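In the current project phase, we have settled on a layout for protein records. A sample record is reproduced below.
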Amino acid sequence: MDNKQATLELGTKPIGKLLWQYALPAIIAMTASSLYNIVDSIFIGQVCGPLAISGLTITFPFMNLAAAFGAAVGIGASTFISVKLGQKDYQTAQHILGNTITLNIIIGITFSIFSLLFLDQILEFFGASEATLPFAADYMVVILAGNVFSHMYFGMNALLRAASKPKQAMFATIFTVIMNSILDYIFIFILKWGIAGAAYATILAQIIALCWQIWLFSDQKQLLHFKRGIYYLNKSIVKNILAIGISPFAMNVCACIVVIFINKQLAHYGGDLDIGAYGIANKVAFVFVMFVMGVNQGMQPIAGYNYGAQKLDRMIHVVKLSVLTATLIMTTGWLIGMFLPYYCARLFTTDATLIQLGMKAIRISLLAFPVIGYQMVVTNFFQSIGKIKISIFLSLSRQLLLLIPLLAILPLFLEIDGVWYSMPISDFLSAIIAGWTMIVYMRKFNRMHRESQALANMNK
């Protein structure tokens, strides 16, 4: 099957089969992606000690911020391409590909230079202490030095999915997991490079995968491929990419702000090991969140294409299936978090104190998981069809408008327990907001579909 035919199937193939076809590779890829982050943490925690886990947790805001810029380009471009492919505007889609490459290079290099110049000051602002700063700095120097390759790697994977190549995107991610795990063992256990070894393993694995992605897009027979004349930045294309990408950018920036605030509150009401416990809980939650992100990535080109083609019944169908799948995934995560927290924490450390703190963090952090999947799908859906303001609002409601005030207020009464319980409370409230918003728009989309059907019947 050629690339154009695969793209056209987004508007004709049964939705259930289509979502499975696109979501399964994305789920596998995202799960694999979460695994290589977890593998890093396990190696670091078991070999470098509990404070290294805390130091790694301090870097989370940095990773969120880097991901914010990557998502602004990668997700914005892939969504824009999906809509253009649905409209059969292949020439514009081609130029979006070229502009994405240029934007990723510019942003990736700029972010690295600025961050490296002020690294220690930034990490201290993020909550690093004298004990955890050396670990965090050793890790981030390497990660930032290779940041442009990470931007390119994640951006290329998003474009592969938009170009109807979800399996290739999956293979690229699985490769990075396997390669990263092998290099982790070599750099940390054999060469004794410590936490910096985990960073070298991550970047080197992504660089090798990026070379393969570039080779794929170099095939002139494909609908989307590299060619001359598409790399010069086009004002209209850049504007549209960033307009769509502003929602995931806002989500990741908010996540950055939230993690900084959580780290500071944990340090104030607890200590370095409480930050490490949050890092463990975050990694456990990350596995299931990445599952749902895989579902969202599978949904995105289907929803975007059918919205662009005005096939609203198919768009609504894929959203409903995605919500059901995400809810099942997150409920599974909740069951594991409630009943198996010891085994989850023990993966990352042998320190008895950190294990106990990690168990508590896991149970509370995952408390509202059964409703989070729905909120994530709804937010991604509005992003996928270009409803940027709504997507931003839903992103902000969960991370900024609700969680930050709760983090500021609840610890005044409950101390460190207030920090922990702020997270599930904000998750639950934001799910209510997302549910109400989706009901309003689903009624609107159903009405639009009925009207288009009535008009089509009149024209027969």
About this structure: The chain has one domain: 3-458. The chain has a mean pLDDT of 85. The longest helix spans residues 416-458.
